[in-house]
Amino acid sequence: MSQLSTASLVSTLAHPLGRTARSAAGAVVRPARTAVRWPVESQQRSRRNAMLAATDLTDRRRQTLLVEEFLAAYTDRWEAAHGAPTPLAAEG
Prior knowledge:
The protein is mostly helical. The model has no long low-confidence stretch (mean pLDDT 80). The protein is built from two helices and no strands. The chain has one domain. The chain has helices at residues 3-14, 18-82.
């Protein structure tokens, strides 16, 4: 006997159902395993997306606060250098 046929014989003895029965069983088990894992993986993806969105919103809020602080400081410096602006006369 050649090595190939010996390996084939050992494989058949180790798995009496044979290759086609194993692949058929795998075809049934694989979708079932996927169906069981799907809710967990979906929840993990959703949580990750929520964390990324929260981080992005925090960064935008921080940037908005920095701009507001800069504009307030700039306005204070401008008013100190040029005087407070006079209100426009009401047209009427």
